[in-house]
From TrEMBL:
It comes from Limosilactobacillus equigenerosi DSM 18793 = JCM 14505. This is Xylose repressor. Transcriptional repressor of xylose-utilizing enzymes. Belongs to the ROK (NagC/XylR) family. GO terms for biological process: D-xylose metabolic process. Pfam families: ROK. Gene3D superfamilies: 3.30.420.40, Winged helix-like DNA-binding domain superfamily/Winged helix DNA-binding domain. InterPro entries: ATPase_NBD, ROK, ROK_cs, WH-like_DNA-bd_sf, WH_DNA-bd_sf.
Length: 390
């Protein structure tokens, strides 16, 4: 049996203490020692080390036990240690978010970027980072960066991005060299799944399927609490699945993506996409009698695709993340009803506030990279604007 060096054990215990700090808003050193089965002196030594690094702070005294005695000192993760900035690069937009170390949102921005090429996008990102650095206040400043890409990502490298051509551009190396901080690059549906795992809104489900519907359709897969990428980052690319239609063999995303739904909703009105989501909601409500039957076939195809994904991956819970569903929840209700009527028994939820989900998941990955906490269970602070609905 291989032996573990003293240094390796020390590092592992320090990460376990950090894990406890992420999982509890406040906690005493005695409780950490009890939870981890460590000596109090070991935890006190690790606390001193983390406090010297600026990662933890003491905030006062807790309640004494029923037997009386000294009130324990309470400690917590120091959120102002630093912040990460994450970007979601979509078809028509780019969103950016700054988050403290505990996940709390510090800043958010959104830009219309329908015509930018890759080089112009890089310059925009640098400009946004500069702007957020001027607003954000933290002891160490910027400590990490993250990018959520609508496309295939393998080991932090963009393999395929159909809506903006990043081929040949190493985002991770470029921004690591530019800012000297850890950088993560991930598929946006995978990032949505990480959000569900790390921001603890799904009550510790270990197997999660996050369906992300935008211009394409993707799914992020958490299995046994770990993000599953598959070969070359291809896992979860359900929108690229093939189905037979009257037009022959086509990809799923051509008939039940966000654009497919939008074309049906806007077919009889003098409006073109993109337009404000509130305007789309109003149009749908005005046209619902005519639009409902037109959507039935598309709803069925989406239901079939998700049903097959559920039977393939065996999740505990399925989350739908889509700005379209935020604006027109009736479409989600129809898809959920189709799934339930065809024997699906897993929990199915819609994420309200989905436009920030991939950003938050990417921020979680960046925080993990900064502290080298891959494989540990975090519980980050989710904004009140995001919720799970039936």
């Amino acid at each position: 049996m291989p032996t573990i060096s003293k240094a390796a054990m020390h590092t592992a215990n320090k990460k376990r203490v950090l894990e406890q700090l992420f999982q509890h808003t406040t906690i005493s050193r005695a409780d950490i020692a009890r939870n981890l089965g460590l000596n109090k002196s070991t935890v006190s030594s690790l606390y001193t080390e983390l406090a010297t690094m600026g990662l933890v702070e003491m905030i006062g005294s807790g309640e004494s036990t029923n037997n009386g005695g000294r009130r324990p000192d309470l400690i917590r993760l120091k959120r102002e240690y630093g912040y990460v900035i994450s970007f979601e690069i979509g078809t028509y937009h780019t969103r950016a978010m700054a988050n403290y170390l505990n996940g709390e949102v510090l800043d958010f921005a959104e830009f219309d970027t329908p015509q930018l090429d890759a080089l112009a996008m890089l310059q925009l990102i640098k400009n946004v980072i500069t702007q957020m650095q001027q607003v954000a206040v933290a002891e160490q400043g910027l400590i990490g960066l993250g990018f959520a890409i609508h496309g295939i990502v393998d080991d932090n490298q963009v393999v395929d991005s159909p809506f903006i051509n990043f081929r040949g551009i190493d985002l991770q190396t470029f921004f690591q060299d530019e800012y000297q901080v850890p950088v993560v690059v991930e598929n946006e549906a995978n990032a949505a799944a990480v959000f569900e795992r790390d921001f603890n809104l799904c009550q510790q489900a270990n197997n999660i399927l996050a369906i992300s519907i935008h211009r394409g359709i993707g799914s992020g897969i958490i299995t046994s609490n770990r993000l599953y990428h598959g070969n070359h980052g291809m896992a979860g690319e359900i929108g690229r699945s093939l189905v037979t239609t009257n037009q022959g063999l086509v990809k799923v995303e051509t008939i039940c993506s966000e654009e497919a739904f939008l074309s049906l909703i806007l077919r009889d009105v003098d409006q073109n996409w993109p337009l404000a989501w509130d305007d789309l909601k109003a149009i749908y409500q005005q046209q619902s009698v005519a639009t409902g039957p037109r959507l039935a076939e598309t709803v069925e195809q989406l239901g079939k695709t998700v049903f097959n994904a559920i039977t393939s991956f065996g999740p505990d819970v399925v989350f739908f993340s889509s700005p379209l569903f935020d604006a027109v929840p009736a479409i989600f209700v129809a898809v959920k009803e189709w799934l339930l009527n065809h024997g699906t028994t897993v929990t199915i939820k819609r994420v309200q506030g989905s436009q920030q989900v991939s950003l938050l998941g990417t921020s979680a990955l960046a925080i993990r990279a900064v502290l080298d906490l891959q494989g540990y269970q975090l519980s980050l602070v989710a904004p009140a604007t995001i919720s799970h609905l039936d």
